[in-house]
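Q: what sequence does this backbone want?
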């Protein structure tokens, strides 16, 4: 991807994670938005999109 993304756009995307708490509520034992944040943190730690990280967080590689 060669499109400059602004911090505002990143913030707007991150605010969508609130929906994860509704779909997978922590009150029912799910991680909700925390799972998405864990994905982001791990992605930044390894600095690479791997099949393993996609599988771990159940994302399909495109």
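A:
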């Amino acid at each position: 991807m060669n499109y400059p993304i602004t911090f505002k756009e990143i913030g707007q995307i991150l605010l969508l994670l609130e929906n994860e708490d509704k779909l997978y509520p922590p009150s029912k034992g799910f991680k909700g938005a925390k799972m998405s944040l864990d994905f982001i943190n791990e992605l930044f730690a390894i600095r690479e999109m791997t099949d393993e990280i996609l599988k771990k967080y159940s994302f399909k590689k495109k």
